[in-house]
Amino acid sequence: ERENITDCGIATFGYGELVQAYQPCKLLPNDYGWNFTEKLVEAVPPVVEGTIFLSVATFPPLGGDEYQPILKTEPVAIIGGSIFVYQGRFEVPLVAAMSYAGRADQLIELGRLDEAVADGQKSVELAPNDPRPHLLLGAAFALINRPDEARRELETSIKLAEANPSMVFEWTKFQAQNALRRIKSTP
Questions:
Q1: What are the respective helix, strand and coil percentages of the chain, to the nearest 5?
Q2: How far is the C-alpha of 11 from the C-alpha of 111, rounded, in Å?
Q3: Which of 59, 66, 48 is nearest to 133 (CA)?
Q4: Torsion angle (degrees, nearest 10) of CA 67, 133, 48, 109
Q5: Which of 135, 150, 152 is nearest to 183 (CA)?
Q6: Which residues are CB-contacts of 145 (< 8 A; sequence separation ≥ 6)?
Q7: H or E element, residue 78
Q8: Is the bond leading into 24 cis (omega within 30 degrees of zero)?
Q9: 3-class DSSP state for residue 79?
């Protein structure tokens, strides 16, 4: 507010819709429930410009690598010791992918399964080597009764997570294994 910033993006710890109640920034994905809202979250483009606010909770090891292109630059400010402020133009295809994965998860919750598959496919297209998009696409395929495609995506998710063990990917692997067990136990 002091700097009159209105065109911005923010990835916070916690639920994004709560943050939007007191600031104008577009929500950027995080691993802590950013998509739990009835209003469909806007997909993030692969290139973002302007002011970006990132919570330290989005940095590895708690977060994935999606913000690495931004973290390689110097922040212009740090707010409260936990929100880093960046300005510039950043190529962030993994952020875009995770925004589509988050939308797929949200669309699943809203029962809009065909749209969830489409967003899951876009997410995998943008980040084919990240296990999280494959997990969401596999879950969407399972829900529309396409078990072969669901198995393929979930197995890919597990394989990618095992190749790059991290706190974020261990959770993804655990979820993919559980989803795969449910598919295998279904006649």
A1: 50, 15, 35
A2: 26
A3: 66
A4: -110
A5: 150
A6: none
A7: strand 77-79
A8: no
A9: strand
Q: Give the containing element (helix H, strand E) for 18.
A: helix 16-20
Paired tokens of 108: 């699943």
Are 153 and 162 contacting, i.e. CB atoms less than 8 angstroms apart? no
Nearest residue to 43 via CA among 64, 29, 60: 29
Give the Cα separation of 30 and 34 in Å (integer).
Answer: 6
- State whether residue 74 is helix, strand or coil: coil
pLDDT per residue as tens digits for the range 36-81: 566 787 899 999 999 999 988 888 777 778 899 999 999 999 999 9
Query: Which of 167, 159, 124, 173 lies closest to 31 in space, CA to CA?
Result: 167
pLDDT digits (tens, 9 = 90+) for 142-170: 999 999 999 999 999 999 999 987 777 88
Model pTM score: 0.85
In our burial notation (b when 16+ CB lie closer than 10 A, e otherwise), range 90-116 reads bebbbbbbbbbbbbbbbbbeeebbebb
Q: In 3D, which of 53, 41, 40, 49 has the Cα closest to residue 13? A: 53
Q: Which pair of structure tokens corresponds to residue 48?
A: 């973002």
